[in-house]
Design a protein that fits this description.
Structural class: mainly alpha
Largest sheet: 2 strands, parallel
Strand order of the largest sheet: 1-2
Distance between the termini: 30 Å
CATH class of one domain: Mainly Alpha
CATH superfamily of one domain: Tetratricopeptide repeat domain
Strand content: under 5%
Number of strands: 2
Number of helices: 38
CATH architecture of one domain: Alpha Horseshoe
CATH topology of one domain: Serine Threonine Protein Phosphatase 5, Tetratricopeptide repeat
């Protein structure tokens, strides 16, 4: 077996001396609390502030920012202790003294009136809604205001207050509260149909929420002592909730029941689509997607997934027909771009080079500034390289590298232009140097540096955190972050970024999310900031890269990696590319959690672990790391084949191992599964970045 070139590829994963003792680094220096408040901030955030009460009272009497900050913490400490009247007095004072957090102090004061003095709370919250508020704060105020209105016998006003809150992208707890408030208001107003729908969403559509039991009680009152049949929107919401946790069979059952009730056409189309996803790994997916495609709003995506389901079943002719319909009927839809790329891969697998190139050319022309267009351009050069038409390949690769220098495939275009040049007997070093210098942390930038013998880029010394200044106030997000309110700080930074597009605010939001343990949101914000920089060539901003590549769940990962004798940074790279550290992540194939384990695989490893356990980070990593370690052992420490097996299965990886290995990079690009090719590149790139950051 040939093992040339790629150091990470050929080296078996070291089995000793890999696990460090340092804790997870957040990265990117932040604004810290003043030294005199640091201990109180930590104690208040941890719910242990009583012993600091006297000190906070004394500090709150100071003039200017120091006193206002201490007062804000004092108010929260008193609230945690149940001393609402005292807390309200403090917050009212702070609202006048603390301009950046005045609305937060005023809101906290209003909250102290609930539930006993609802009319006063409603009056205060109504006044607060007249102020300019961030999206996050406006949503929070509207939910509290609706609660106060209900307790003030003003249920008729609730729907108008809640109507402006968008229902998309709400977490389960907030969505349940929103529907519960609507349902209770409708019940009080005597609107039985609206109450049944809203309370049905709470009871059935969002399992496990804190309002579900009360919603069920109210539904019995409305339905003669019995629970009614769940309304179609609630069944659909529940099915999607189940799918998001890898419970495909339960989701399928819910969707079948829903479809038998004869729901409205739009709801039915959505139900058929999700039924197709639930059945993707079994029979019946194609029929479900065809039914969904009858609705124009769902047609393009349904046709794409119909093609995927048919291709998975080996019916490539019908898969081709489904993708052609998606392209022909919805030519400008993003799902048409996906279908074009899938069609090109299909032709490439058949060695139908002319047809593949024609499809790729159309894709690049119709979607030039998308990731699909970027991939299509690169693959046009790759088709020629595979057929040994090196001069043509070099010309195309160089053209794309010059015309699209900020695209994700820019480094790949330079790298393969160098390879094509070398295949013609010419020196490609200059192109490798350009790839290594301009795109040092990309997959092909890392490979270029290895071929050149260059060291990894130097890591910059990170600045230390600065404290809040005593002579002036900071922006609201910095004040909130320093005082131990990271979620509110992240919301403020994100809201401000939407209006200013200041990249430092993205960095700040990423930091605050990481501080709150919300790594999925932190990585997303940091990635967006990195992507905005041409070529991702910002290795000097090490703190930002640490946010994009965090040591999240580090103690869990470290312990499991030590037992399984796997490099913990490889584990982090797998988690990052599998789920972006979202413990609730679910793939269309039904893989669940941080390491995206299929429930059947998890049960095999653990001897009966149920799917819901996989959303628990500890359980998911405890099962996923030994599985990864077993694949590494099976393939003799070959990281690439182990990763290919993790993505596509051990049987597929054994077939891949028989492919020609003239160079490691060519081997990866010849993997016949598009998803697996991209997956292996991404994980190896992330693995290199983790080693650069933390080793």
């Amino acid at each position: 077996m040939q093992r040339a070139g790629f150091r990470i590829w050929l080296a078996a994963v070291p089995l000793a001396g890999l696990v460090g003792s340092s804790s997870a680094a957040v990265g990117l220096a932040a604004v810290a609390p003043p030294p005199e408040l640091a201990v109180a901030v930590a104690a208040t955030r941890g719910g242990r502030c009583q012993e600091h009460l006297a000190a906070l009272r004394t500090l709150s009497e100071r003039r200017g920012p120091p006193g206002a900050r201490a007062g804000y913490l004092l108010g929260h400490c008193l609230r945690k202790m149940g001393r609402s009247d005292e807390a309200r007095t403090v917050f009212d004072t702070v609202a006048v003294r603390y301009p950046p957090l005045a609305v937060y102090a005023y809101l906290a004061a209003a909250e102290t009136f609930l539930p006993s003095q609802a009319p006063e709370a409603a009056a205060r919250l109504a006044r607060l809604l007249q102020q300019p508020l961030s999206d996050y704060l406006a949503r929070r105020v509207r939910l509290l205001y609706s609660q106060a209105l209900l307790k003030s016998n003003r249920a008729a006003e609730v729907e108008g207050v809640l109507r402006v809150i968008p229902g998309e992208a709400l977490d389960d707890k907030t969505a349940a509260q929103l529907w519960w408030l609507r349902g209770v208001a409708a019940q009080v107003m005597g609107s039985r149909s609206r109450a049944l729908l809203a309370l049905g969403m709470v009871w059935w559509g969002i399992p496990g929420n804190p309002h579900a039991e009360d919603a069920a009680r109210r539904l019995r009152d409305l339905h003669g002592g019995r629970l009614p049949v769940a309304p179609p929107p609630a069944r659909l919401a529940r099915a999607k909730w189940l799918l998001a946790r890898g419970l495909e069979r339960e989701a399928e059952d819910e969707l079948v029941v829903l479809l038998h009730t004869g729901p409205p056409a739009q709801t039915a189309a959505e139900a058929w689509y999700y039924l197709g996803l639930a059945r993707l790994r079994s029979r019946g997916a194609g029929h479900a997607f065809r039914q969904a495609a009858r609705d124009p709003a769902w047609a393009a995506r349904a046709r794409y997934w119909e093609g995927r389901a048919l291709a998975r079943a080996g019916d490539t002719r019908q898969a081709e027909a489904a993708w052609r319909r998606a392209i022909g009927e919805h030519p400008s839809d993003p799902w048409a771009a996906r279908s074009l790329l899938a069609l090109a891969y299909l032709f490439e697998d058949r060695a139908a080079w002319t047809e593949a190139d024609a499809v790729l050319k159309r894709l690049a022309a119709d979607f030039p500034k998308t990731s699909w267009g970027d991939e299509a351009r690169w693959r046009r050069g790759w088709l020629r390289y595979r057929r040994r038409r090196y001069a043509e390949a070099e010309t195309l690769f160089l053209r794309w590298a010059r015309d699209f220098p900020t695209a994700a495939r820019a480094a790949a275009n330079l790298y393969w232009a160098a390879q094509a040049r070398q295949r013609q007997g010419r020196d490609g070093r200059a192109l490798l140097e350009e790839a290594a210098a301009r795109y040092p942390l990309t997959y092909y930038g890392q490979r270029a540096r290895e071929r050149l013998g260059w060291e990894p880029p130097a890591r910059a010394v990170q600045p230390t955190a600065t404290s809040l200044r005593s002579d002036r106030f900071h922006p609201a997000h910095e004040e909130l972050g320093a005082l131990g309110f990271p979620l509110e700080a992240a919301a403020e930074a994100e809201d401000l970024f939407r209006s200013t597009h200041d990249p430092d605010l993205q960095r700040a939001a990423a930091y605050y999310h990481a501080s709150a343990g919300n790594y999925h949101a932190s990585v997303a914000a940091a990635e967006e900031a990195i992507a905005a920089t041409p070529g991702r060539a910002v290795p000097e901003d090490t703190g930002l890269w640490m946010l994009a590549y965090p040591r999240a769940y580090w103690e869990i990962v470290k312990a499991a990696a030590k037992v399984a004798r796997v490099d913990p940074y490889l584990v982090l790279a797998v988690i990052r590319e599998e789920s972006r550290f979202d413990r609730l992540a679910i793939s269309p194939a039904g893989a669940v959690g941080l390491m995206q384990l299929l429930p059947a695989t998890a049960r095999e490893i653990a001897g009966g672990a149920a799917s819901p356990q996989l959303v628990d980070p500890s359980a998911n990593v405890r099962l996923g790391v030994p599985y990864l370690g077993g694949l590494l052992h099976l393939f003799g420490g070959d990281v690439v084949l182990a990763l290919a097996a993790y993505n596509a299965g051990a049987g597929a990886a054994r077939r891949f191992a028989l492919l020609p290995r003239s160079t490691p990079e060519e081997f990866i690009e010849r993997i016949p599964y598009a998803e697996t090719r991209a997956y292996v590149r991404r994980v190896v790139e992330s693995y290199g970045i983790y080693r650069w950051l933390y080793r």
